[in-house]
Amino acid sequence: MAKKILAVDDSPSIRQMVSFTLRSAGYEVVEAVDGNAGVAQAKTGQVDLVLTDQNMPGMDGLTMIRTLRGLPQYATTPILMLTTESSDAMKQQGRAVGATGWLVKPFDPQKLLEVVRKVIG
Amino acid sequence: MSIDMGQFILVFFDEAAEHLANMESLLLNINVAEPDAEDLNAIFRAAHSIKGGAATFGFADLTDVTHVLENLLDKIRKNEITLTAAMVDAFLQSGDVLQAMLAAHRGQGQPDELAMSDIKARLTQLLSSQDGATTAEPSELTIVIQPGEPFDETLLCRELDRFGVIDDFTPGDAHSPWLYRIKTTDNPEKILDSMSFMIEPNRVSITPSAECQSDFGLFLTPAEPDLSVDEGFGFFDDTPDVASPEAPAATAEEAGYGFFQPIVEAPVVAAVSLTPAAVTPISRPQNERATDKAAESSIRVSVEKVDQLLNLVGELVITQSMLAQNSLQLDPVLHEKLLSGVAQLERNTRELQESVMSIRMMPISFVFNRYPRLVRDLAGKLDKQVELRMIGENTELDKGFIEKLSDPLTHLVRNSLDHGIESPQVRLARNKPAQGTLTLKAFHQGGNIVIEVSDDGAGLSRERILNKAKERGLNVNDNMSDSEVWQLIFEAGFSTATEVTDVSGRGVGMDVVRKNIQAMGGRVEIQSMTGVGSTMSIRLPLTLAILDGMSISASGELYIIPLTFITESLQPKSAEIKSMAGRGNVINVRGEYLPLIALHEIFNLDPAINQFEAGLVIILEAEGQKIALFVDDLLGQHQVVVKNLETNYRRVNGVAGATIMGDGHVAFILDVAAIVNMAQHLASATPEKIAA
């Protein structure tokens, strides 16, 4: 049973790259274009890991993580923030709303896989 | 596993172009005195997204420029810096530079290093000139304490707490070092000094952390104290030993990630609580824009796929009309079911055709959107005050036209600004408002789309155009109608500008504009009133794939003439036809003599009708020239699916394409512009047969 990952990013190129990389490695991937869509997608079917961008129109990554953490089925699901903001304030905010970890853009596909494998095997 | 990034790079290019266009339109509409916070956010997000993508796909130059741009925008949106008009200009210029860089990466042109460093310097300068007032940014320091004697960690935490926020803490022991990361505005010496009463200073090294210390980390959230990952969790086990003091912070960087440890038993640092529940949510108004919604429910499909679909539908239309034609011969009583099926098929086919065509349709705003910038820049250059109004930007037309329209439209817009709209002084002297108005308008009219470029400027000068035409030896007289005079400006090399500016006036262009529009199966019309203004209208068919045509017969063959070129048809009388020695025939149509040419002559066919009175004459107009085409008969009006003759056979002079009629017959679609040229040529030269 392949592990299911939700990739949330408003940038089609990054989203496609992330999805393609993960699918090539045998994961099942569902995509969303912003926080609102991410929450909707997460409610549609349980995923094993959420990867989200921070800066998105509509609902940003932090708000989405907070919303997901408010759902009982996502209380402990690993959520990683993919973000170009490596600032600590950002990390602290992510940590505060319940993110599991962070990965700074730019990352290459290999790095992404390495991190995902660490988190969900 | 290696991933080929090529396919995503193309997506990134499109995406970046969209972001740039979006950024430009937001910047052009921004109120510098009171910028809308949501707009500033959107502009920042555009720069931010381009930077993220550029960095991911390895375009360092794009990353460089967007990085500075993003920094400045970030400070503006956080109200740390006040937006100025100079900044808006710089941002617009950045957009241009980024666009050129994107084009260079796409393989169109060379990267302009100078422009890049120039804009970077300009942005940096804006950033620093405004930055003086802001407080010093806290920097992050990495404190490494060599393995050895334990010390009171809580006490040290409290001590460090005075200097700033502790981000990271990794406890050490006799074999591994303690590691602290602290964000502070104080200098390392001061911190070292305060630690020295607890730990020997030679065990401590304090170095600035790299700007981006590590690019991955995990928080041990209270919700999940051990993240129970079967294997591989416990990142520091996998990393090289952190013992070497020389590379305190580098380890995490090399491995690419490091774990975020909770601050064990330390008093909670700063205002950040570690329990999600205790955090007051940052409530921000979520201004949902329509575009975000649209993005959710749209997909990108390559144009080739759509064209293939359109082609298949075209085939289906042909097959359907063949069935319809054949079913006419069936007994309606005997074959009632079959006939109602055929009728149903016709409805379905038509609807299918319409929806497939609508896929290729794009709003004309894709073309219009570039003009606010062009008008702003050009008006500034020419010292004119111009207001640009755009009407009907959501009018849709075929994607193929969108790309081809931009050059001709740009030309018309430039012309209006340069020759049409007067300088404020002249306007005031003429009792007009100092600010001129340039209007771009698009609307559907019948089966056409009409795009108008109008200005309330000086209008065209009949006198100047006629003088110029006489100078150039064109065949003109003072009795010509206004519209005939206006058509003269489409002559190659025709320019009435008294002085050549770098905007227009070199006399290239209007003829090219007309050529381009005609190549799209359209026409350009001019209306002008001296002192009041001019309107240039471009009239285009809705799509290139299907055209409205008149079917005619000549020598037993069937031909299609695109409806847009036909002005009228008439039954000729022999009295109206005159033969000019060596120059073919002319026909008198209400006092106007037009060259008369027979279609069978053009294609070297054996004439089926030898008497002009027995056939019909169709008056065609292309490129401002009228001719009379003699044909055997008019058969009817059809919508035909255009098939390219060149790809299926080869180019034939006088034939624009082919179509398949309902009965399965192939009919040629006439290239009216070419036929008009032939006729003109024939009328002015020796009577040579023009071979097909």
From TrEMBL, chain A:
SMART domains (UniProt xref): REC (SM00448)
Domain Response regulatory: from-to ranges: 4-120
Keywords, alphabetical: Phosphoprotein
GO BP: any one term: phosphorelay signal transduction system
Record InterPro entries: Bact_response_regulator, CheY-like_superfamily, Sig_transdc_resp-reg_receiver
Gene3D superfamilies: 3.40.50.2300
Pfam families on file: Response_reg (PF00072)
Source species, domain of life: Bacteria
Membrane-traversing stretches: none
Modified residues (4-aspartylphosphate): 53
Name of the protein described by the UniProt record: Response regulator
Organism: Chitinibacter mangrovi
Source species taxonomy: Bacteria, Pseudomonadati, Pseudomonadota, Betaproteobacteria, Neisseriales
Automatic annotation (TrEMBL), chain B:
GO molecular function, one term: ATP binding
InterPro entries attached to this UniProt entry: Bact_Chemotaxis_CheA, CheA-like_dim, CheA-like_homodim_sf, CheW-like_dom_sf, CheW-lke_dom, HATPase_C_sf, HATPase_dom, His_kinase_dom
Coiled-coil residue spans: none
Listed EC numbers: 2.7.13.3
GO biological process, one term: chemotaxis
Pfam families: CheW, H-kinase_dim, HATPase_c, Hpt
Phosphohistidine sites (modified residues): 48
Catalytic activity: ATP + protein L-histidine = ADP + protein N-phospho-L-histidine
Source organism, top-level taxon: Bacteria
Residue ranges constituting the HPt domain according to the UniProt record: 1-105
Role, per record: Involved in the transmission of sensory signals from the chemoreceptors to the flagellar motors. CheA is autophosphorylated; it can transfer its phosphate group to either CheB or CheY.
PANTHER family, alphabetized: CHEMOTAXIS PROTEIN CHEA (PTHR43395:SF10), SENSOR HISTIDINE KINASE CHEA (PTHR43395)
Name used for this protein in its record: Chemotaxis protein CheA
Protein's organism: Chitinibacter mangrovi
